[in-house]
Design a protein that fits this description.
This protein is mainly α. Helices cover 52% and strands 0% of the residues. Helix 1 packs across helix 2 (26-40), helix 5 packs antiparallel against helix 6 and helix 6 packs across helix 7.
Length: 207
């Protein structure tokens, strides 16, 4: 009987360690991975799975801190006043769950991205406005997941033109493009090899 794929094993390992408090050490995760591999029939080396699972768990995020200026006044409750169908946001959260994120991590990201969206302005506002922001975080702290969540929410509320500035290095731009393709676009952006990546059932049902 063949064993499970590495992707499925990573998802299982992430789920197994995500609720452990305090956060497990690297040695703890290796031991858990070896035990899980034996039970699930995973025969590949567990090193990569351990690293990926620990990265996923380390992206657990709280509310964070927002510093807000009053130079450009706006209604902070505009999101609650609108009827919004969270098509892209729900699809992104489903994608994260399918990728091995725990429900607690996904809910935390959902709350944070909604809070940041409230700091922006309603795109349906006919007046002239200017809102600017900056997200700062440590390496592997969830920054990309954070702004992809915001991109999805921005698309849901009606923003039509969204630019992601991914840095000056090609490898980082490529990595960010791949994350955006998976989390928002749903297909590769490589013109030489365009293919579907993943479409959540919530997004698929709306088409």
């Amino acid at each position: 009987m063949p064993g499970i794929t590495e992707r499925s094993f990573i998802a299982s390992l992430t789920a197994a360690i995500s609720d452990i408090d305090p956060r497990p050490t690297h040695e703890d995760v290796i031991a858990k991975a070896q035990w899980l591999a034996q039970g699930l029939g995973f025969i590949e080396p567990v090193h990569n799975a351990v690293e990926q699972a620990m990265i996923s768990v380390s992206t657990r995020m709280g509310e964070g801190v927002s510093i807000i200026g009053d130079e450009s006044p706006h209604d902070p409750d505009w999101v609650e006043k609108r009827e919004i169908t969270w098509t892209y946001s729900d699809a992104y959260e489903e994608y994260l769950l399918q990728s091995g994120w725990s429900g607690q991590m996904v809910q935390s990201l959902s709350d944070v991205s909604l809070k940041i969206l409230g700091h922006l302005q309603d795109p349906k506002d006919p007046d002239t406005w200017d809102r600017r922001g900056l997200v700062i975080g440590h390496v592997q702290s969830g920054k990309t997941a954070n702004y992809l969540g915001l991109v999805c929410r921005a698309a849901d509320v009606g923003y039509k033109f969204i630019v992601v500035i991914a840095g000056i290095h090609n490898n980082l731009r490529k990595q960010t493009q791949e994350r955006a393709d998976s989390g928002f676009v749903g297909r590769t952006s490589n013109p030489a090899q365009q293919r579907g990546i993943w479409i959540a059932s919530s997004l698929r049902s709306s088409r």
